[in-house]
Write a structure and sequence with these properties.
With 625 residues, the protein is an alpha/beta fold. It contains 21 helices and 26 strands. The chain has 3 domains: 252 residues, Luciferase, domain 3, CATH 2.30.38.10; 172 residues, 3-Layer(aba) Sandwich (Rossmann fold), CATH 3.40.50.12780; 137 residues, GMP Synthetase, Chain A, domain 3, CATH 3.30.300.30. Helix 2 packs across helix 7 and helix 11 packs across helix 15.
């Protein structure tokens, strides 16, 4: 029986011409077979999304914060939609009282909190461009964004005020008003006022516009809602302009998708989840990796009978899932007696776990699909495409390791990349993922040159290399710019190799390096602590995790595991890793090695590990393939 495909062709592909690479056919989601989903009636802007929710659910809880009693986290305390709305109107009146209105850029700097959302909605209400200043960005990037976007007013988390002050006097040329989410110290007030700025605590700001009332401006779909600066792996951040239309188009597509698949029905994270009991849980892969590591460690430390029971239950359910059974039917008995503890650890109500922002390891995804008693979906998108553009579907085990088919409001095609050997017109289509539709961004703020580089004839070129699967799902296999040539003239698609080697369960993360002056590849690896310690115990190697990472036998073990995968995947000899360095400290933002969404910053990784790379090449360690 032919496999069902969740996409259909709307335009034929084209051969290479006029210096342009060939392009594959244009596809749409199967769920858009009757046309793109119509916008939700009454939704013309992001403000309408919030306003209509308040009208529909005024008494429902909207924003919650956990109380801390004697240093311990307690229950969530909630504000209703109506209570949040009233605060939004107060903040909006205060913003307007300070002289800021439509088109003014408003920064919001800090971690997620109720005040962040309230400030954003106030911007949406009065037509200000909301410019998120991610709390993971350093002072340098914050200074650049404030100056580039010409931000006039900024809301800032109390503990981030000292970081913001580091951007003065440069940022003070544009900033006029600062609003703390909490308090303001006398010293901070004096420092800010030196530069002629006004600064308010949160409670003070709520009173600024209390005697005034401002009409809300009419908002159009074409109006810019937010300018989101991408952290970027190289160069200065780029300001992605996203319109109201992009966001409401995305919402219409998500609504259509959910209805089509019948889904109507850090340390304290798991404690928060258990207390909050969410039904939909969105996470980045690193969070799911930690959940996976914690669960596998508990299983490994259990008794022989428990481990045997778990392994049997896991194999049984996974086998049934691969046969096409839905997850609720694959093993209801084992769900109750074996996997229910995992479900309860996630609050007991989770139906969907959505992973995004970076690739989720296939072994983590398959493990959670079995034990979490929930749908594990992987999504893909960029800031420039208003986030989610692809998402895998519930109960489709064939989509394991993919990001699923496109959502039903975009057109997608692959474009050949001949220099990397990717052909969009081959029997297995591979190429750069290109998208068009109303979810695509309006351009880079003040950077028409960069906009023209990626927006060509209405198609946004993502820079990611994808491979269409027979069921219509997309597999991300490479990055267009992450390619280099070894000294013997062989091209290496490094991100593709990292995805292949990333399936090794003994490693958490891998960065592969090579250049045109060397003939082989080397890698810096963050090993999985539990796996490495288990190997050490089984092989009589002593020492803590840090010392194991320095152990030559441990390095040989990791190289052996990498070689197994390389042989299994039939990699070419020059694609084998010949030397490794094991770093017990994960690649992180503190050392500027990753972006806030955990994408590797390759130039920074090279700079940080340069001496180690030089030593690996100097030693010329080349285990046989």
């Amino acid at each position: 029986m032919a496999q069902k495909s969740y996409i259909f062709e709307v335009e034929r592909g084209r051969e290479a011409k006029d210096g342009q690479p060939s392009a594959g056919p244009v596809y749409r989601s199967f769920f858009a077979k009757d046309g793109f989903p119509a916008p939700i009636e009454g939704l013309d802007s992001c403000w309408d999304v919030f306003r209509m929710s308040v009208e529909k659910y005024p008494g429902n809880p909207m924003l919650g914060r956990r109380e801390f009693v004697n240093g311990k986290a307690g229950k969530y305390v909630w504000r209703s939609y109506k209570e949040v709305y009233d605060l939004v109107m107060k903040v909006g009146n205060s913003i307007r009282s300070c002289g800021f209105g439509e088109g003014v850029r408003c920064g919001i700097y800090g971690a997620n909190c109720a005040e962040w959302i309230i400030s954003m909605e106030a911007c949406n209400a009065h037509g200000l461009y909301c410019v998120p200043l991610y709390d993971t960005l350093g002072a340098g990037a914050i200074e650049f964004i404030i100056s580039h976007a010409e931000i006039s007013i900024t809301f800032v988390e109390e503990k981030k005020i000292p970081e913001l002050l580091k951007t003065f006097p440069s940022a003070a040329k544009h900033l006029k008003t600062l609003v703390s989410f909490g308090k303001v110290t006398p010293e901070q007030r004096e420092e800010v006022q030196k530069f002629g700025l006004a600064i308010y605590s949160w409670d003070e700001f709520l009173q600024v516009g209390q005697d005034q009332k401002f009409d809300l401006p009419m908002k159009k779909k074409s109006d810019i809602c937010t300018i989101m600066y991408t952290s970027g792996t190289t160069g200065d951040p780029k300001g992605v302009m996203i319109s109201n239309e992009s966001i409401i188009t995305l919402l219409a597509g998500v609504k259509c998708l959910l209805e089509s698949v019948n889904e109507s029905d850090v340390k304290l994270l798991l404690e928060d989840i258990a207390q909050l009991k969410p039904s939909i849980f969105c996470a980045v892969p690193r969070v799911l990796d930690r959940i996976y590591s914690g669960l596998t460690q508990k299983i490994s430390s259990g008794g022989f009978i428990k481990k045997m029971m778990f392994n049997f239950a896991y194999s049984y359910k996974f086998h049934n899932l691969k046969k096409g059974q839905e997850h609720v039917e694959a093993s209801p008995v084992f769900d109750k007696i074996v996997f229910d503890k995992v479900k309860q650890a996630l609050g007991g109500n989770v139906r969907i776990i959505l992973s995004g922002a970076a690739p989720l390891s296939t072994h983590v995804e398959s493990f959670l699909r079995v034990v979490a008693c929930a749908h594990i979906l992987q999504g893909y998108g960029l800031t420039e495409t208003c986030a989610g553009s692809f998402v895998s579907l519930p109960n489709e085990i064939s989509m394991l390791g993919t990001v699923g088919p496109p959502v039903p409001n975009v057109d997608v095609r692959l474009e050949s990349v001949p220099e990397m050997g990717y052909d969009a017109l081959s029997s297995t289509p591979r190429g750069e993922i290109c998208m068009r539709g109303n979810t695509v961004f309006s351009g880079y703020y003040k950077r028409e040159d960069l906009t023209k580089e990626v927006l060509i004839d209405g198609w946004f070129h993502t820079g990611d290399i994808g491979e269409w699967q027979p069921d219509g799902s997309m597999k991300i296999i490479d990055r267009k710019k992450n390619i280099f040539k070894l000294s013997q003239g062989e091209y290496v698609a490094v991100e593709n190799l990292e995805n292949i080697y990333g399936v090794v369960s003994a490693i958490d993360s891998i960065w592969i390096y090579g250049n045109s002056f060397e003939s082989f590849l080397v890698a810096v690896i963050n090993p999985n602590a539990q796996a490495l310690e288990r190997w050490a115990k089984e092989n009589g190697v002593t020492g803590d995790f840090n010392s194991l990472c320095e152990n030559s036998r441990a390095k040989d073990y990791i190289l052996g595991e990498l070689a197994k995968v390389a042989k299994e995947k039939k990699l070419k000899g020059f694609e084998f890793i010949k030397a490794v360095h094991l770093d017990p400290v994960p690649f992180d933002m503190e050392r500027d090695l990753t972006t806030p969404t955990y994408k590797k910053k390759r130039p920074q990784l090279l700079k940080y590990y340069q001496n180690i790379i030089d030593k690996m090449y100097k030693s010329g360690s080349k285990p046989s393939a």
